[in-house]
Amino acid sequence: MAEVKVINGNMAAAIGARLCRPDIIAAYPITPQTPIVEYLADFVTGGLLDSSVSEVESELSAMSVVTGASLAGSRVFTATASQGLSLMYEPYFRASTLRLPVVMAVANREMISPQTLWGGPQDSLTVRDAGWLQIYVEDNQEILDTLIMAYRIAEDKNVLLPINVCFDGFYLSHMSERVEIPEQAQVDDFLPKYVPEHIILDPSRPMAVDPLTNGYLLTEYRLKHMLAQQNALKLLESLDGEFKERFGRNYGGAVEEYLCEDADYILVTMGSMTGVSKDCVDAAREAGKKIGLLKIRMVRPFPSDRVAAVLKGRKAYGVIDRNVSFGWNTGIIYEEICASMNRAGQFVPNIPFIAGLGGEDITAAHIDYAIDEIINHAADAVKNATVWLNREDKGKEDTK
Amino acid sequence: MKFISDYIVPIGPEGLHIVQTGKWRTRKPVMDKEACVRCGMCLMYCPVNSVKKLADGSFEICYDYCKGCGICAHECKKGAIKMVPVKEEE
Amino acid sequence: MNVIDKLAIYEDQISPGISACVGCNVELTLRTCMKVLGPDTIFAIPPGCMGGVGVVGWDKKSGAKTPVFFPLLDNVASMLAGIKLHYEHIGRHVNVVAFAGDGASVDAGMQCLSGAAERGDKLIYICYDNEGYMNTGYQRSGSTTKGAWTSTTPVINGKGGKKQNKKDFPMIMAMHDLPYMATMSPAYIPDMVRKLEKAMAVESGLVYLHVYNPCLTGWGCTSDESIEACRLSVETNFAPLYEVENGSFQMSVDVKNPKPVREFIRKFKKFRHLTDEDIDALQELTDRKIDRLRKLCTL
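The joint structure predicted for all components is written out below.
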């Protein structure tokens, strides 16, 4: 029987990682991820986890240690946030281009400046084009479950790519809620042992790793890398059913559709804001407003076909981003969705929203406002004019 | 350009990448076996591992990869190795 | 077995043809080290001369017979730490070795190296110190000698050159309380072989080996004199050979009557503009350092 505990998001991540039995763990503490490092140290010291841990001196080394260990054939785990992820960038990019199935939890935190500690996925979204897979989750149960799925996807022979499981700092990392913890045997059944067959550093199988490589070969590697990302998307979709059968829970695959079937209007969310948004959608439905919710789970690769299929033919949609896309005057997910709709040859009136930056609350009032904007003003809104939900004037004065 | 489809990642398992450094040579070391006292300094200091020790204890210079640096001649205490200009026809 | 026989018998682990400069004493150092370390070795060649000359290979071919990889300039020791951790985790012995230039060790990679040293990751870290970024055209590094011409510390009308003293990196590493730290020279191969064998026998912690490798192309010196230049660096006490075992210092080659530093300095074009006063200052620095080192050896 699965055990039920009330735990915070960091503990959910640590337990999720523990259940996957990584051989090597290397992580460096940074708010709001720090407790993950402490919990894992406790597990190992207390004999609950047979991993070797490297107490690294920086995130650069954390990422480098897990890269080295993965190259030698270990299953690895690391976790970070914000500036830590930035410091990792050099080996981060490389873990993907070396096709190493590294699993990394990210307790999302805003990027400096100004000095900030609080939640928001600006950190990992900024590195979305570094070749990793990225999944963003809504609650603590989803953190734990997605980590288990993440290893299965990353190590799949048709994928072999590193993956981020991202959750909002503080809103999830430090918030406690009910989480079902699967039994070890269940996870062991779901997750076969990792055996590298594409790259290895082992004197019994000598090879060079990363020789100087010409562009024609690099082109080949990039093409296959992107195809592998698409394989990961397909696998995430198909694993959803298997996960449900084995563990009793599922998340919709690359996106979750909530009350979308008959909806005229769609609200697009990602991460921890989704919970309150669902409540607001429920209330709007009761008030006769035909709105549904689309939760983005996978950002890399972006599930563009599915997103476009959900949005096409609706009267309007809106996207709430807890991040900014510098240069576009909107949020990042909004632009991803615009690109998806363009690819599908679809246009639906829409409104980009930005809210919750630097960990500001996204309240029910904000979501209610956004829903009403989508329903009442999307059709006649100035195209791509962002509504800044946390501002009194909603940003209208400054972005005129 | 044809691709080998098995490769998904930059690895080099297909043998050694070898540069024909013997062609760089503008002068070559020539050993006077009579003058050689078999101290082995030439083998020890050759940067390209191009001096072999033979079964009879004598030493021999191999020219396949010798770059003609002149270290062996310079380090030989007995002056048993001379650097000789490589003729164009070689 | 004597050293000549060992070197004659041990298999060369590196491709017979790599495009290192003619007479390069780093190539000699690499081949010698890898012969001694043998086939049960995984080694890292970060960006630098040895990476540039093809030791990591080209396209689908390798430049070495043992597993070799190309870490980043600044994460050599950490990537190796991960590899070693894997092999310790599965209980298998493999030599995990860095062969890195001074840029990757003394400058950009120092944090990772210091971290691995402090944690006691069981690596053999070999730094070939050619006093700068020679592979990219002789830029200065933290390991460049004061006064030296480099492409980023140019000398124009007799003025210029590096303004600061060289970082004393072997001493910095020695202060990490390593089980074994040693300096080596390609002019002293038996000493180098002995130190490598000692390094391989260490069972606790990181071993740091620092090789002083005057660069023919970057410093301006003929290839014939490659080894002689290395020898002079030791005979002048400019780059003394010593080792530190569990905190205990010992001279490996005790030069009782050192030659003047001038003899070493005058070998290279990069020091050609130095005045007598400049060279006197380098002599003073050398004297002060060897004096300190000798005192450490008496402790």
